[in-house]
Each structure stands twice: as structure tokens, then as C-alpha cells.
Design goal:
The complex is a heterodimer.
Chain A lengths: L1 E7 L5 E6 L9 H10 L9 E3 L4 E7 L2 E7 L5 H19 L4 H6 L1 H11 E2 L2 E2 L4 H7 L5 H10 L29 E14 L5 E15 L5 E6 L8 E3 L5 H7 L1 E4 L4 E10 L9 E9 L5 E10 L7 E9 L4 E8 L3 E5 L4 E7 L8 E8 L12 E8 L8 E7 L6 E15 L2
Parallel strand pairs in A: 8-23
Antiparallel strand pairs in A: 1-2, 1-5, 3-4, 4-5, 6-7, 8-9, 9-13, 10-12, 10-22, 11-13, 14-15, 15-20, 16-19, 16-21, 17-20, 18-19, 21-23
Chain B lengths: L1 H16 L14 H21 L3 H16 L8 H5 L7 H14 L4 H14 L5 H13 L6 H12 L4 H17 L4 H12 L4 H14 L5 H4 L2 H7 L5 H18 L8 H6 L7 H10 L8 H10 L8 H14 L7 H9 L4 H17 L1 H4 L14 H14 L5 H12 L4 H17 L4 H11 L5 H17 L5 H10 L6 H13 L7 H12 L5 H17 L1 H16 L4 H14 L12 H5 L23 H5 L33 H9 L2 H7 L4 H17 L1 H14 L5 H29 L5 H20 L14 H10 L1 H17 L11 H16 L8 E2 L10 E4 L7 E6 L12 E9 L5 E10 L4 E3 L4 E4 L4 E9 L7 E6 L4 E6 L3 H4 L3 E2 L2 H10 L16
Antiparallel strand pairs in B: 1-11, 2-3, 3-4, 4-8, 5-7, 5-9, 6-8, 9-10
The chains are: A alpha+beta, B alpha+beta.
């Protein structure tokens, strides 16, 4: 399936290559560079590129292109999904997935890739198994290794690969047993000029950090499971039980993992926690434009809207902006024409406002499109869909674990058209 | 790098001496690389030294640096001899790195690579499965043709290995060997055939991958494994799932008849009614000749459905395409939601999913219409995502939603991304042609856009308007006029050319404007772009033909200009036109037809989706994504007109029983039931025996569905347990079979030889399979499966039997009816019916209570001790409903103890009990239970006729676990036989008891 993998950085250098079958010359990447040149933005490089003898399937993350070389028919999503899994693993191992981190840990990277694919077919992609095979590098371990000459390859053989629960490593031991669940929801919305919602949907995930000894068997139940009608599970979740009782029953992997992700679609009503009042105008003839933006909270159930960040791509004709924020700071990049305003927390008594003028290129006609405004925010202790965890129970182990649930709502792709 | 410098210093002396050899690096790169390679060379020297040292840490360090070299794509092949020596190193990391190196360079250094082979051959015999597996992995990755026979041997051996992990590795090795030496295909197919029979979920994905690579056309190999693959699918790892689903899609298209036939016609006409599932269902039912889906076809659809919930996008896509290509039209809708969910994923995933949705939405608008808003474009989307979304929105446009879509399009037209704005205008054009109601609105909107400031937008609008006008030119002369007016302001050549063409084409409608435009063009002709010039010549020619009076001079002027143009195309065109329209002696007959040639009615262009023809490819494939046939693409065959023989998928028993198929048919007939009632006779016994063994032979597929049902019934059994549950039932079945055997030998005077034989062999191999199934639950559906217990419950109660029988045939024909409603709940029914039936069915036995020993046991086992709580010891119990051997007032209970650990458990026995008065006849202490093994013991418990739970401790050498058995009321009853009058008599004696009445239809015995 996957023949070779090339890692290419933002400046177009191939800084790592790995082959699982016969070696494919790196000149195959020239086709990729060609496509890259044609694309105006880095994101616009098509994910699938045909070449005379191979097919290149690429993924762009953290400003690194992961280019897989394929020789024959294969579902493209298979490769894409796998590449993303590789990136996730790197991130898991090295904290960040940057060129520097990969170069520093090239041996671990190679060992990982060797375990993840055999002859181009995925072998072990579960992070729990990989960690049993290859220990993630930590500062301490690197020190110990250099002094004692020991290795970061697991001495034990990966029994997990054979078990009924391949996602969990065996022999887990903790002195503090704890299980934390974060319910994080993101609102994707498009708000039109007049402030009415064109489309809004909620993307939710439940991320878990479970550090429990032994083989705990957990069940998680919800107050209102009916909200979750479109879900995808971590393989550990017992699907039948969910179907029958709407209870999540699972033996968790060790450590961090995504238990569940769900989608509350646009057909349901979605509460929009902020509103924007805007007045962005360009007058014909004059080289000035007015900019006036006010943010306010709505439907937040009394919770504070925090970490608000407004960004907007102003029209190309704008030379400079001379604005005055009532709180926070703003920046305007005259090259990319990107205006960002770091608002911080919204105070309902004194609504944040950004006001001022924009200078246009002299003589240029008025831009015919008003910019879209992207908003980011966070609301703690609230899941906007109203999802609530009822209880978490543990079976199979004797001890009492410490349990915690956290809710958060964030803006996803939240756009306001003006 | 500092370390590197250090080593450079060390090696400097030698480097100086050997400087003459620096020409060795073979590389096509230019002189600039020379310096680079010279340092490489030095480094390699000291690497060699480090590798030859005695210190492990030095060797490791050297290997790490070599891996770094490899990762940068630099050549490190000359180190091969030094490295290959370390292949047998004790240090695991060092060994792994050496493997990495070997696999990379063995192809180039074949002779030297052979040195390492013996090490691997030795490791292939290692007692540790992981060492065996990794040896095979590396051995098969070394692409050296000489070792093909060795590889073949190793693969064959590994394919028969006890460890599923090694077998998995051998499946991977098959592909490698095949790519190395395709001549081995035949032998490899044999191995694949063998591995396909494997029941481990670990192996399934890999072997199907090998199948796809080596012999995708040998569909006959799949038949026997089809049902097993379907049933295992949920538990296979995600990557394997994708491969299996894709393979099964192809398989199903060759084996089943189309589920679309009946409704194909009315489907295309009114797709909307499709989505009201009710009306659809009704229609289905009233359909004269209903299509009955092959149960195997249904099995596939049912077993893949849960995978739509997978977190792996590739799996979701695979299931979606399976439904698209295989499911009845009204069921395809269930994939919509999941596909839309994927749109939240990474950009690349979005891209592929949107492509597939685009193809789907052309054929079936209704599927995605409710999710219209999910395809709205955000300004932050990448351009190719935007265009795909636009494509889908256009495909989804109907009369009902067009106004919303157009409003959305208005926003897009204003986008800063001008390429996207242009694409939007084209989309508007497509909407306008597809939906005649809005054509005028669209046209007007587009005309407004003509005054847009941006050139690309204007140009695109002109082009689209041109196309639209062509479809209905009669009504729109004012638009043509308007465009002519705009002509001066438009500078984009394509747009100018389009206007000129339009005016030329419809010059008779704008008789005054056209010559004027030509006049303007004559002035600027030389300054125009080529494409505009060509159209000017065209315009001139057309005007000359229609209105030669006014334009003759102008035309000649333009033709003269064209004659001396720099571009030969224009010169050619001019010459051609002149000959055509200006009659002279040389121009032949053609000029007579000039008018008909130039002013022929031209067909309107059809504005079609770019995804129109993509459906020729299987969805989700690379070929579909590229719209080119990728190498290795397997065409999806059309449905066969007549389904091939479905019995090929029936699974044989290892020891084949004769004539199973006809007797299965017989078993379905009510006649055979008669036999059962003539109880206590060998014949009946025999019949039930043989048919049970036959049943079990034929129905692995039932086992799957049954275990499913079971888990539906018992809420605590969940998907991951389902394998286990079926293995339980297996155990119980093997047991009950053993029981039956006992009875046979006891009762039968002359047991049919073949019969007892088959039973025996079956009992044997089921027990052996339980033993061997040490590693996982997936061994569960071995050949003698759950039907046996079902059969047994059947014997208990004639009525339920009929039902159960019917259930079997239901499964065969259309098991897609929501099963649980009529699924038998044997444990409940049997216990309650049991006592009634006993009194009813028999008539010729002595009046008093006669205890019958029923030859059946209920299939349901209860969990006594979960292996989690039991630290690896798991215990199940069930009531065999046999009179207890130990004391008459005790109830016989059978315990199945299984060791799920990887070490053996010792001294399993019963410890303290409560209440203390409880009398239990314990089983003998089990000295030792091997890992993975399970043992069945029987014990007797006196519940003293109450449903109070019996609590006791189950002890092992180290631990004790408190367990409790709570009997259902029915289990406390003693099976007995009495005549009807006796029963009535006895019944009358009882007073104050609750009466339960039920009507039972009995076959006349």
C-alpha cells in the first residue's frame, strides 16, 4: 500500500524519507513541488497528485507536508487517515510535531514508522502498544540512556497486540487513580450581515485522561443521551451497549485518548453565545473607511465569555487601519491585511468595542466586499448543547478512583459576514 | 554535530591516508556535493570503527547515526559488511536498527545480505512468538531473489503457527514474496486459502490484504469464509476493516442479485417519496413480485452498519461506499449523517469525502438535501474545498431550495477569492439551466454582475450569460443589447469574444447595434487579443451575410487587416472566410451554402457537473478521486442477472456429514417433528442427534446472528463480549453434546454408527478447539456451535420448537426483519413451559410422577464470575436440568471455569458458603487449570425450594472470590412425566396456588 514517505518542510526541503518496499527516488517529489508552486496557498495543494508511475497523497500539518507514495489503487482516505495518525503519534511522543523535533528524534521516528507499517500496511497504530514497544523520549530517560547506555526500546514484548483489548497496555499501576473527562464543544456558525444565524452546528468531543490501575471497566451515562445521535467512538466503547441503553461502557486505554466525538447538526437549534454589532463601510470617492465593531454576550447561561479573539481579513485596498479598542489590543498586518483584536474577557456591563478609520489606497475604488469576521472564544463550565454527564462508575477493580468532569465551549469556525 | 566533529578528529589520520579513495561515492550529483561526500566518507570510516568495537553503546551510537544518514536519503551502503555482523546482537534496539538498515540495503548488497539469513532462520524456530514474527518480517522484507525458497518455506510454516500474531506476519510476508517473485503465485494462493480459514481477528485483515494483492480474482476462495468474515468484521482492527469491506463489496456484487431492480424505475422519477420510509415500505410490500434479499447479503449490510460509528474516517467511507453499491436504495440514507460528520475532520479528509458526496449527490439529491447548510462555504476554506462545496450545492439545488442557495451564492460572488467567485457564477449558470423557474432571476442577477468592478467576475458572467442565452435566445434581445453597451468597459478577452459571438449569432435581433459594434471593432482590431480578433472576423462574416448593405466595406476592411495579422490562425480564418462569403469565380459551390454554414442553429451547451461521469468508479477509491483509472483498480462488476448458487457459502464440517443439505430441508418440515414426540425411542433420539450435528455443521452464520440476539437480550453482554458469549454457548454446546453422547451410549441399543461417530468427533474437536483457543475470544465460532443448544431447547417444548424451527428458516430467507421480537427467549419460556408440557405431551406412562431425564440443557449460561473480577478466572454456570446425582433435593448446576490468564491457576475449589446452612455438594478441587483452558464441573445445591441466592466462595490457591447463584423458579422444578388425567388429579390436589393459563397448540402426536 504505502510505498514510501517523505517529509517536506515549508521551504520545500525533504528532510526525512522512509521506504517500506523498494526505494523510490526522491525525485518523485518534483511532481509535488510543481503542484505546490501552482497552488497559491499552502493549503491549496491537492491532497492526491497523480504522477506517471506513482500517486502522491499528502497531508499538511504543523507546516510539514507528509507525502506518501502509492503505487496502485488504494482508498485515499486510508492513507490520509494513516498519515494523520502518524502525526498524532509524533505529537504524542515529542510534544510537538515540528521539523526540529523530528530531526532531533530521528531514530525514534524511524523505529516508530517501522512498527507502524509493515510492507506498507498498518501494523500497530494504537499509542498504548507503540509506547510499550518504544518508550517516548523524556529528558530524564535521555540522560539515563546516555549515561548507562540503555535504550528506549522496550525490553518487554508487546503483549498488548494479542490481547482482547489491544488499546490498553497491561500491568498498569498508579498510586493515584484518577479519571478525568473533558467535554469540549465547538460551535461552527455562519452569522449573516443582519445578525441572523445562517448555519450553526456543534462539534463535541469527550477527551479523557484515565490513569487507573489494572483493568478497570468504566461506564459513563448521560442525563440527556438523546442529544447524541451522531457519534463516533473510540474502539474501546461497546457499541451494542450504547445501542441498547445509551450508556458508554468501555475498558479505557491508558493515558489520554478521545473517547467520543459527536455532532449536533444544524437541524437542531443552537444557541449562539455572542453577538457582533458591526459597521464597516467604505465610501465611494474618499480614501477612508469606517470601522466600528462591538461584541456582546447572549445566551451564555450566566457564564463569562473568555479568551475572545477577533480576526478579519480586510480588503486588499486597505493600506492602514487606525483603530481604538475599548479593551485589549489590536494589530494590523499591512502585508497580509490581517486585522486581529485580542479582546480577552467580555464584560457585559461595558461591552468591548473597536472603532476607527481605515485608510485606503489613494485612487483605488471602493472594495466591493466587506470582510468576514472570525471570532474565537471560550466559555468554561458549560456545554452549549446542554449535554451533561450523569455518572461514572467503575467495575472490575477494588479501589476508589478520583473522578472529574469538565465542560467547555469554544468557538470553532465561527464567522460573521458583514 | 559536535560528536561528529569529535569522531572526525579521531578518524582524521586514516582519512588522510585513504584520501585517494574518495572517488568511491557514486552519485550523479554535481561537484557541490563532493565536499559533502568527503565528510560523509570520513564519518563512515569512523562509524565502521565504532561498529567493530566491543562496546555495545558505541555500536548503538554508530547505528543511530547511520539511521540518521538513511533518513536523509544519503548513501550508507558501504557499511553493509560492518553492520551485518551485528544482526545477532543481544541488544534489542541495536538489533532493530540493524534490521532497519538491512531492509533498506539488502537489495543492493545481495551477497552480503545472505550472511544474515541463518540468524533469521534460527530465530524462526524461537519459542517466543514475537521473535518468530519479527524474524519472518525482516526475512521477508529482504528483497533478495535467491532466498525465495527459504521465504516460501518460512511462510508456510508460519501460516501454521499456533500464534495468530505469527500467522498475521506470514500474511504480510505473502505480499512481499509475491512482489519479489510472482511465479510463486500458485503456492502462495494455497497459503492464502489456508489463512483465510483462520478464525482470528488478528489475521483476517492481513490475509484479505494479501488476497487483494495476489489473487483478487479468486473469488471462489471467499465463499466459505464469507460469513465468518462478516461476523468477525466488528472486532478486526480498523485498517483490516477497510480492506475487508472493500473486498466484500466486490464479492457481493458478483454473488447477489440487485436489490434495486423493482424500484429502479419509480426511484428515478420521484426520489422524494423515497425518503418517507413509510410509504416506501408499503410500496415494497405491495410490489407484485417482491425481491427477497439473500440472507448473506443482508448479513453483510447488517454487520457493517455499526462501523459507521468508527473514529477512523477510512472505515466510515468504506462502509458508505458499501451501502452505496450494495444496499437497497431506501437504506442508503443511513450513511448520510456519518459522511457529513466527516466533514469536520482534517482538510484532506474533507476533500475526499466531498468528492464522494459530489458524485452521490448527482444521483440522489434527497440524501444530502437536509444537510444543505453543512456545505455552506466559509471564507477560511481552501479553494479546492470551496469549489467542491459549490459543486455539491449546485447538485442539490431544487425548486424548493433554490432561493436559499442563490442567496448564499450572492455572498460567494462577492468573495475576495476571485477564482471562487468565478466558479460561483458558473454554478449559478448551472442552477439556471437545471431549474427553469429561476432562469430569469439568474439571468437578471448575472446581468447585474456585468457592472461589477472585478474583471474576472464580469468576464465569467458574460460567458455564462452567453451560454444561458443560447438555450433560450428568443426572449432576451434586451440583454444582448445591454451587453453590447457594456462592451466598451469590458477588457477581459474571453468576455469580449463572448459578446462578439453573441451579437454575431443573434445579429438579426439587434440590427442596429451589430453593425455599430463592428465599426468599433474595426477601429481597435489590431490592438485586440487573438481570440477577440477571431470573433470579430466571425461577426463580420455573419453581418456580411445578413446585412451586407451596411457592412460590406467594414467587413472587407477587417478581412484585410486579418490577412496581414501576425497570428497565422487569424490569417487562416480570414482567408477561409473570404473564400466562403465573397463570391468569386474561384470559390466553388461552398459559398452558396455560406449562410447555412455560418448561421446554422447551434445546439445549446449543456452545463453539467464535473462529477457526472465519476460514478463509473467505485466510490472511495483512488481512481474515483482522480477520475482516472489507477493502476490496480478492480472494476466493480454489475449485478448478476441470476444469483450464483448461494449454497457455496455454507460451511462444511471438518468431518463432512453426508447429505446434510437435504436433511436440513427435511428438518424444516413439520413431519420430522413427529419423530420427536415418540420420545424415549432411539429413533427420535437419533433423529435429533443427527439433525443437531447437521445443523451445527451448516450454520456458522446462525451462530453469529444468534450471539447477536443473545446480546440484545442480555443487556450486559456487549459488543466486545459478543465473541465471548458465543464461545460460551459453544462450550455449553460441547458439553451438552457430551451429555447426549452419554445418553446415547446409555440408552441406545444400536446407535447408528455414522451418527455416534460424527458426534464423537465433533465433541472431540470442539473440546480441542476450546483448548486451543487460548489466545483470544475470536476462536469462538468453531464448527459445532450454538445451534446445538437451540435444538435442545427445541426438544423441550413442541410449540416453541415449531417457532424455533421457523426462526431458522426465517434466518435463511429474510432475517432482516427486526429479529428480537420473535426471537425465542428459551430460558424463560422453557422453564415455565417445562412443567406444563410434561403433563401434556405424554400419555402412556405410569400414573405417578416419573422423573424424566431430559436430554437437553438450556443454552443460556449465567455469569458467575467475570474474568476481571476473578483476576483471570472466569466462571459461568448453567442448569443442566438433570436430576442431581448427589441428593434428590439438590439442583444440579454446572460450572464452566476458564482461565484467561497467561499462567495456570491452581487449586480451584469451593470455600465458605452462606447462609451457613446451605448445603452444597462441591466439585472436586481442580488442581491445575492451564492458561486458556476451561473445565466444566458439576455441583449440586439445595436451594430449599426458594429463590434465595446461594452464596459461596470460589477459591484459588491465592485468592478467593465470593459468588452467588440465584436460580430462576423454573430451575428449581423437577422434570417429570405424567399423563394428562394424572396431571389433572395432581392439579386438583394443589390448592391456593397461583394458576397460570396458556394455550398451547400441539401437533397431534
Amino acid at each position: 500500500m504505502i510505498h514510501s514517505l517523505f517529509l517536506i518542510n515549508a521551504s520545500g526541503d525533504i528532510f526525512l524519507e522512509k521506504h517500506w518496499k523498494s526505494v523510490v527516488s526522491r525525485s518523485v517529489c518534483d511532481y509535488f513541488f510543481e503542484a505546490q508552486e501552482r497552488a497559491t496557498e499552502p493549503e491549496n495543494v491537492p491532497p492526491v497528485i497523480p504522477t506517471p508511475h506513482h500517486y502522491l497523497i499528502s497531508v499538511l500539518r504543523h507546516r510539514i507536508y507528509f507525502v506518501a507514495v502509492i503505487q496502485s489503487e488504494v482508498p485515499p482516505l486510508f492513507v490520509i487517515e494513516f498519515l494523520h495518525r502518524v502525526v498524532d503519534t509524533f505529537q504524542d511522543y515529542f510534544g510537538v510535531c515540528t521539523e526540529a523535533a523530528i530531526k532531533d528524534n530521528v531514530v525514534v521516528v524511524y523505529e516508530l514508522l517501522e512498527e507502524m507499517l509493515d510492507n506498507g500496511f498498518p501494523l500497530a497504530t494504537e499509542s498504548n502498544i507503540l509506547k510499550e514497544l518504544i518508550k517516548p523520549p523524556t529528558i530524564l530517560r535521555t540522560m539515563v540512556n546516555t549515561i548507562t547506555g540503555s535504550t528506549n526500546v522496550g525490553e518487554q514484548l508487546p503483549t498488548g497486540q494479542l490481547s482482547v483489548v489491544p488499546w490498553r497496555r497491561t500491568g498498569v499501576k498508579y498510586t493515584n487513580n484518577e479519571a478525568y473527562f473533558d467535554v469540549v464543544e465547538e460551535i461552527d456558525a455562519i452569522i449573516d450581515k443582519s445578525g441572523s444565524t445562517i448555519t450553526a452546528e456543534i462539534q463535541g468531543v469527550i477527551d479523557a485522561c484515565v490513569k487507573l490501575t489494572g483493568m478497570p471497566d468504566l461506564t459513563l451515562s448521560f442525563m440527556n443521551p438523546r442529544l447524541l445521535d451522531d457519534v463516533s467512538f473510540h474502539p474501546c466503547v461497546r457499541f451494542k451497549r450504547w445501542e441498547a441503553e445509551r450508556i458508554l461502557s468501555f475498558i479505557p486505554p491508558d493515558g489520554n485518548f478521545r473517547l467520543l466525538s459527536y455532532h449536533v447538526s444544524s437541524q437542531n437549534l443552537v444557541a449562539i453565545p455572542v453577538y457582533v454589532k458591526h459597521n464597516i463601510t467604505f465610501r465611494e470617492g474618499s480614501s477612508q473607511g469606517r470601522f466600528d465593531l462591538t461584541l456582546g454576550p447572549k445566551q451564555t447561561m450566566g457564564k463569562a465569555v473568555e479568551a475572545v479573539l477577533v480576526s478579519s481579513q480586510l480588503p486588499r485596498g486597505v493600506l492602514n487601519a487606525n483603530l481604538n479598542p475599548s479593551q485589549g489590543t489590536y494589530t494590523f498586518d499591512p502585508v497580509t491585511k490581517l486585522l486581529t483584536w485580542d479582546v480577552g474577557k467580555i464584560n457585559p456591563q461595558k461591552l468591548p468595542n473597536l472603532k476607527g478609520t481605515m485608510n485606503l489606497q489613494a485612487g483605488a475604488s471602493k472594495p466591493d466586499e466587506n470582510p468576514t469576521i472570525n471570532i474565537q472564544f471560550k466559555i468554561q463550565q458549560m456545554a452549549i448543547s446542554g449535554l451533561k454527564v450523569n455518572r461514572l462508575d467503575m467495575y472490575g477493580e477494588k479501589y476508589k478512583p478520583f473522578k472529574g468532569i469538565k465542560y467547555m465551549t469554544k468557538a470553532g469556525k465561527f464567522q460573521v459576514r458583514t | 554535530m559536535s560528536t561528529a566533529a569529535l569522531y572526525n578528529d579521531q578518524g582524521a589520520a586514516e582519512a588522510a591516508v585513504e584520501a585517494g579513495q574518495e572517488t568511491t561515492p557514486t552519485s550523479s550529483s554535481s561537484g557541490a556535493a563532493f565536499g559533502l561526500f568527503s565528510t560523509d566518507f570520513k564519518k563512515n570510516e569512523d562509524l565502521k570503527e565504532m561498529l567493530e568495537s566491543n562496546k555495545e553503546s558505541l555500536k548503538l551510537e554508530a547505528m543511530k547515526r547511520i539511521v540518521q544518514l538513511i533518513s536523509k536519503g544519503k548513501n550508507a551502503s558501504e557499511l553493509f559488511p560492518a553492520i551485518v555482523k551485528n544482526v545477532a546482537s543481544k541488544n534489542i534496539e541495536l538489533k532493530k536498527l540493524v534490521y532497519v538498515y538491512l531492509v533498506r540495503y539488502a537489495e543492493e548488497q545481495q551477497d552480503l545480505a545472505l550472511l544474515s539469513i541463518s540468524t533469521f532462520q534460527r530465530a524462526l524456530k524461537d519459542p517466543n512468538q514475537f521473535i518468530r514474527a519479527s524474524a519472518l518480517r525482516v526475512l521477508s522484507s529482504i528483497r533478495v531473489p535467491i532466498i525465495v525458497p527459504i521465504m516460501m518455506l518460512a511462510i508456510k510454516e508460519a501460516a501454521a503457527d499456533l500464534s495468530p500474531y505469527v500467522r498475521k506476519t506470514s500474511a504480510h510476508a505473502i505480499q512481499k514474496l509475491h512482489s519479489l517473485d510472482p511465479d510463486q503465485k500458485e503456492q502462495l494462493i494455497e497459503v492464502i486459502e489456508k489463512l483465510l480459514k483462520d478464525k482470528s481477528t488478528l489475521v483476517a485483515g492481513s490475509v484479505v490484504m494479501a488476497f487483494e494483492e495476489v489473487c483478487p480474482d479468486r473469488i471462489d476462495l471467499i465463499h466459505k469464509n464469507y460469513r465468518k468474515l462478516c461476523n468477525l468484521l466488528v472486532d478486526v482492527e480498523e485498517w483490516g476493516q477497510v480492506v475487508i469491506i472493500n473486498m466484500l463489496t466486490r464479492y457481493a456484487r458478483t454473488q447477489f442479485t440487485t436489490p434495486w431492480k423493482e424500484d429502479a424505475v419509480f426511484d428515478e422519477n420521484n426520489e422524494k417519496t423515497f425518503y418517507d420510509s413509510d410509504s416506501e415500505d408499503k410500496k415494497d410490500q405491495t410490489e407484485a413480485k417482491p425481491y427477497i434479499m439473500d440472507p448473506d447479503h443482508r448479513l453483510l449490510l447488517r454487520n457493517t452498519k455499526p462501523l459507521l460509528q468508527s473514529r477512523n474516517t477510512a472505515v466510515v467511507m468504506a462502509v458508505s461506499q458499501l451501502y452505496w453499491h450494495l444496499a437497497p436504495k431506501h437504506e442508503i440514507g443511513i450513511v448520510t449523517k456519518s459522511l457529513v460528520r466527516l466533514l469536520r475532520s482534517h482538510r484532506e479528509v474533507q476533500f475526499i469525502v466531498l468528492q464522494n458526496i459530489a458524485t452521490m449527490s448527482i444521483q440522489r439529491k434527497g440524501m444530502f438535501e437536509p444537510y444543505l447548510k453543512s456545505f455552506y462555504v466559509r471564507s477560511t476554506d481552501a479553494t479546492h474545498i470551496k469549489t467542491l462545496k459549490l459543486e455539491i450545492l449546485t447538485n442539490l439545488a431544487t425548486e424548493a431550495n433554490i432561493s436559499t442557495i442563490l442567496r448564499e451564492f450572492q455572498t460567494y460572488v462577492k468573495s475576495q477569492d476571485k477564482a471562487f467567485a468565478a466558479a460561483t457564477i458558473q454554478a449559478i449558470g448551472r442552477c439556471a439551466t437545471n431549474i427553469s423557474e429561476v432562469t430569469d432571476t439568474c439571468l437578471n442577477g448575472l446581468v447585474l454582475l456585468l457592472s461589477n468592478r472585478d474583471e474576472t467576475v464580469v468576464a465569467e458572467s458574460v460567458v455564462v450569460i452567453k451560454k444561458l442565452l443560447q438555450t433560450q435566445p428568443t426572449q432576451h434581445s434586451d440583454i444582448i443589447k445591454h451587453m453590447a453597451k457594456l462592451f466598451d468597459n469590458i477588457t477581459v478577452p474571453m468576455a469580449r469574444a463572448s459578446i462578439l459571438w453573441l451579437i454575431g449569432e443573434y445579429c438579426e435581433r439587434v440590427p442596429k447595434i451589430a453593425p455599430d459594434l463592428l465599426r468599433k471593432m474595426a477601429k481597435t482590431f489590431t490592438a485586440e487579443e487573438d481570440i477577440v480578433k477571431l470573433q470579430t472576423v466571425n461577426l463580420a462574416a455573419k453581418l456580411y451575410l445578413t446585412n451586407s448593405k451596411q457592412t460590406k466595406l467594414l467587413t472587407q476592411y477587417i478581412l484585410n487587416l486579418g490577412k496581414y495579422d501576425q497570428n497565422y490562425d487569424i490569417r487562416d480564418r480570414t482567408r477561409f472566410i473570404r473564400q466562403l462569403i465573397v463570391p468569386n469565380e474561384k470559390s466553388g459551390a461552398l459559398s452558396k451554402y455560406a449562410r447555412r454554414i455560418l448561421l446554422a442553429a447551434k445546439p445549446a451547451p449543456v452545463l453539467e457537473s464535473a462529477f457526472k461521469d465519476r460514478d463509473r468508479f467505485q466510490l472511495g477509491t483512488l481512481s474515483h478521486s482522480l477520475n482516472i483509472k489507477a493502476s490496480g483498480y478492480q472494476e466493480l462488476s454489475d449485478w448478476p442477472a441470476v444469483a450464483p448458487d448461494p449454497t457455496v457459502r455454507n460451511v462444511e464440517v471438518i468431518d463432512p456429514v453426508k447429505e446434510w443439505a437435504p436433511s436440513l430441508g427435511k428438518a424444516k418440515q413439520p413431519k420430522s417433528d413427529d419423530k420427536f414426540y415418540s420420545d424415549e425411542e432411539e429413533k427420535g433420539e437419533e433423529g435429533s442427534d443427527s439433525s443437531s450435528s447437521e445443523d451445527s455443521s451448516s450454520s456458522t452464520e446462525e451462530s453469529g446472528s444468534e450471539s447477536e440476539k443473545e446480546s440484545n437480550e442480555e443487556s450486559e453482554k456487549t459488543s466486545t463480549d459478543s465473541g465471548k458469549s458465543s464461545s460460551d454457548s459453544e462450550r455449553s454446546s460441547s458439553e451438552s453434546e457430551a451429555e447426549q453422547k452419554k445418553k446415547n451410549t446409555k440408552k441406545k441399543n444400536k446407535p447408528a454408527a455414522a451418527d455416534s461417530d460424527s458426534v464423537e468427533s465433533e465433541a472431540k474437536d470442539s473440546s480441542s478447539s476450546t483448548e486451543s483457543s487460548s489466545e483470544s475470544n475470536s476462536e469462538s465460532d468453531s464448527d459445532s456451535d450454538s445451534p446445538a443448544p437451540q435444538k435442545i431447547s427445541v426438544k423441550a417444548k413442541p410449540k416453541v420448537e415449531l417457532k424455533a424451527k421457523k426462526e431458522v428458516s426465517l434466518l435463511d430467507l429474510d432475517d432482516f426483519s427486526p429479529a428480537p421480537t420473535n426471537a425465542p427467549k428459551p430460558s424463560v419460556i422453557s422453564s415455565s413451559l417445562l412443567s406444563d408440557l410434561k403433563g401434556l405431551s405424554l400419555s402412556n406412562v405410569s400414573p405417578t410422577l416419573q422423573i424424566t431425564t431430559s436430554s437437553f440443557g438450556p443454552e443460556k449460561t449465567h455469569e458467575l464470575l467475570h474474568h476481571m473480577t476473578g483476576k483471570g478466572l472466569s466462571a459461568k454456570y448453567h442448569f443442566p436440568r438433570q436430576p442431581c446425582l448427589y441428593q434428590p433435593q439438590m439442583v444440579a448446576v454446572q460450572l464452566i471455569l476458564t482461565n484467561t490468564l497467561d499462567h495456570s491457576l491452581e487449586e480451584i475449589h469451593v470455600g465458605d458458603r452462606s447462609p451457613a446452612s446451605l448445603s452444597i455438594h462441591c466439585f472436586n478441587t481442580i488442581e491445575r487449570l492451564e492458561p486458556g483452558a476451561s473445565v466444566t464441573v458439576s455441583m449440586g445445591i439445595d436451594f430449599s425450594d426458594s429463590t434465595q441466592a446461594a452464596n459461596f466462595h470460589l477459591c484459588t490457591k491465592e485468592d478467593q472470590f465470593s459468588v452467588s447463584i440465584q436460580p430462576a423458579v423454573g430451575e428449581l422444578l423437577m422434570p417429570s412425566t405424567m399423563t394428562e388425567p394424572d396431571f389433572c388429579k395432581e392439579q386438583k390436589k394443589l390448592q391456593g396456588m397461583n394458576e397460570t393459563s396458556a394455550t398451547i397448540i400441539m401437533a397431534t402426536a
